[in-house]
Amino acid sequence: MHFQPVIAQLVADAVEKIRINPGNFADGRKDFEEKVYETEDDYIQEREYLFDAMLPLVEKCKSLNRAMRIGTNHGSLSSRVLSFYGDTPRGMVESAIEFADICRSQDYHNFVFSMKASNPLVMVQSYRLLAAEQYRLGWDYPLHLGVTEAGEGEDGRMKSAVGIGTLLADGLGDTIRVSLTEDPEFEYEPCNRLAEIADSRLAKNEDAKKRQEAVKTYVDTRDITSYKRRHGDLPAAKEGDAVDVSGFLHKDGAVIAEVSPEMLSAENSQYLYQQLGCKTAVGMPFKDIATVDSIFMREVPSSDDTAARTALRRLIEVSMGVVVPAEVLEKDPVPNAVALMELEDALEKNGELPEGAIRLAVTVHGDESDETLAKIKDLNPAMIFLKVSPDLSQLHASRRVFEILKKEGITTGIVHHYQTDTDDSNELAL
């Protein structure tokens, strides 16, 4: 119920559960004077107003055994919270906690929390902060997960998966809703699928438990109360480089597309440039902000396929990385390609590159020893492909690898290499 505490009490007579938004339930109209709070005590003094507005509803819900959702929304924080905490996840959490304090003061515990935002990164940080705060306080109230106004189509499903899926993988969340700007019946399928994926990966699933236990022991040092991206270095230039290798990855997240030799043929190359997001001029490709950073090829065109080799060379010349398994390059060299090796093989060969290759990339599977992963620093690869073994938990094995790399000061860019059995776009979006 928004803005009208009195109406909320009337609604509580008729329904089993109501939702209030702390941002506009009592002070969302921003009627009181805008001010800057010098101290936390000054901020807390305003709570008396909230208590008086909230108390009648709490008493009614308790007497009628009604449930309540304290649902904070990132886009509608009160002016009071904005004045003290700013437009932050911390402000969302504190706003919900003080309303929960009012409920608890009346021995009313039939409520759940939600921390919704249209930005899934803000949403994830808010829920993690709330979970940490509940742990500190000794609370264990349920969490309802959702991304507000996620959108439609693939975008809406991907945003929901990033937000809801991340938290479910952490073991957080009791109920979920996927909010799409589509007819309501289309929300059920992705919502149900996210729940199924989460259930299949939690320890209560015997297969998932085995995969988790198969991951080598590691210490998790992540600060879950803050959201900070890992810093990954771009490939560094070396004297004598024929191409700009720094463009093989992107500082804000790289995109790598798989390409087959047939796609480089004379009749297909222009279409391929378009599919890779390249601008073209007189048939020549150029990189743009939306262009794929690198391509991955399991096979390469034969050396006598002039048209395909020319198309490949043009992509490399505009700083697009071409990543190819080292054993393929040993048979058919590609000038200035990136040779991809298993970490163990790269260490055994001391990082020696096939003929013509400009840089090394290594594949790790998460089952390597700490000592083996630490040796990546000696190889100084351009990028690391993280392809977790199917016998391991994807989440826990990945976090272990990141922890070891952080400990060893290895800041090489990492590419998540994930293979799936489906080509369904909706399934892939989740």
TrEMBL record:
Coiled-coil residue windows: none
Cofactors demanded by this protein: [4Fe-4S] cluster
Domain IspG TIM-barrel: 1-191
MF term (GO), any: 4-hydroxy-3-methylbut-2-en-1-yl diphosphate synthase activity (ferredoxin)
4Fe-4S recorded as keyword: yes
GO biological process: isopentenyl diphosphate biosynthetic process, methylerythritol 4-phosphate pathway; terpenoid biosynthetic process
Protein's name in the database: IspG TIM-barrel domain-containing protein
Organismal lineage: Eukaryota, Sar, Stramenopiles, Ochrophyta, Bacillariophyta
